[in-house]
Amino acid sequence: VNVPFLDVAAQYLELRAETDATVACVLQRGEYVGGSENAAFERELAAYLNVREVVGVNSGTDALLLTLKALGIGARDEVIVPAYTFFATAEAVCLAGARPSFADCGVDSFNADLHSIERAWTPNVRAVIVVHLFGQPVDLGPIDEFCRARGLHLIEDAAQAIGASYRGRRVGSLARAAAFSFYPTKNLGACGDGGAVCCDDADLAARLRQLRNHGRSEAYRHAEIGINSRLDEIQAAILRVKLPQLDRWNERRRAIAARYGAGLRDTRCELLMHAGRDGDVCVFHQFALLHPEREALRLFLAREGVESAVYYPVPCHQQAAFSSMPDQSSLPHAERYSRHALSLPMHTGLADSAVDFVIELVREFERR
Ligand SMILES: Cc1ncc(COP(=O)(O)O)c(C=O)c1O
Q1: Which of 14, 135, 152, 255 has the highest count of CB atoms within 10 angstroms of its CB?
Q2: Can you tell me whether residue 287 is helix, strand or coil?
Q3: Percentage of residues in the chain with pLDDT exceeding 70?
């Protein structure tokens, strides 16, 4: 039996006829950038998230970068970001000209918590980016209070968590602004790059629209230096076909996670992710666990045909790209997770029998 880690084409194949028809319409219309599909997707995503404004951009990285720029964050500013995240979260801070200040993970969560964010604070910090890592919503309430008390912008990196909720509200609607990625492997994936910024502030959205389009205020008039970062019409059209299926796909991910969770409960796997309580809903972009013999388990699974993945083998504060930054103290939880985290296969096309096979292999590994 082979169990692939991902099945990127599955969403397309499920919706093939509708997707092919909608892409053909866009191709025939000849409006490939900045047209009606993007505008409609922005409206539909805003309704789904219950936010006033959505601005489609070219990637999740650009969504973060443009948010920071639109909020006026740049040289001499610091931004708190989790050390344990995809590199782009910290990279965007540097691209904006600011400096990341890295926060550790919580003791029992892949996400940063209030304590770790407090420790990363310096007088130069102007914003905090929280990451709902692997689809697990961050415990935002206390972090929001901390940011309000210090006048800091709170930004959500919701790239991995579209459809998740915190206290009954969708992630992406909980802070000053939020960034999403539609990279093909995401829970809502385009067939290429894509991203969006969401917020409730019309002025901020107008600034983002200007920045994504070369700082253009009107035709061939440029009020500021922006970038070229628009969500193209083909990607927007494909995302519009997929969005109505997102909740159902996320439910399937939750069912797979529940099955893994029940099957692995009494093993040496440390299960930090949970489905959510009190109105929280995790959407399991990954099913990540910790294992004391991570590398041996990974090899064992691979030999039996099961693909797994390590997110992330090197936390951001230890990346070579940041080696010249002073004061990178050790962040013990992030470092421990990067040594022991393993993500098991997770995609909507994964059959229960495949999940059971993976569980049985983990148990067999532990019996050896
Ligand atoms: C947490 C996180 N932030 C940001 C990004 C960047 O998104 P993109 O790849 O669309 O630039 C990603 C994913 O790729 C991500 O997982």
Answers
A1: 135
A2: strand
A3: 99
Residue with the smallest CA separation from ligand 1 atom 8 is 60
Residues 98-131 have pLDDT tens digits of 999 999 999 999 999 999 999 999 999 999 999 9
Name residue 160's amino acid: Q
Q: Is 136 in the pocket of ligand 1 (CB under 6 A)?
A: no
Residue 145 has pLDDT above 80, yes or no: yes
Instruction: Collapse the DSSP code of 18 into the 3-class scheme (helix H, G, I; strand E, B; otherwise coil) and give the result.
Output: helix
User: Which atom belonging to ligand 1 lies closest to the Cα atom of 133?
Assistant: 1
Q: How many CA atoms lie within 13 A of 87 on its CB side?
A: 8
Rounded to whole angstroms, how far apart are CA atoms 214 and 210? 7
189 lines ligand 1 (CB under 6 A): no
Beta-bridged to residue 343, according to DSSP, are 288, 309
The two beta strands, 165-166 and 177-181, are unpaired
Pick from 90, 46, 101, 38: nearest CA to 68: 90
Q: What is the mean pLDDT of residues 233-262?
A: 98
Q: Which of 160, 212, 239, 284 to mutate to test the pocket of ligand 1 (most atoms within 8 A of CB)?
A: 160
Q: Does any ligand 1 atom lie closer than 6 A to the CB of residue 92? A: no
Other CB atoms closer than 10 Å to residue 107's CB: what's the count? Answer: 12
Output the CA angle 191-195-196, nearest 5 degrees: 140
Task: Using DSSP, state whether 339 is helix, strand or coil.
Answer: helix
Query: Which one of 86, 130, 157 would you pick to mutate in the ligand 1 pocket, going by the greatest count of ligand atoms within 8 A of its CB?
Result: 86
The response to whether residue 85 sits with its C-beta less than 6 Å from ligand 1 reads: yes
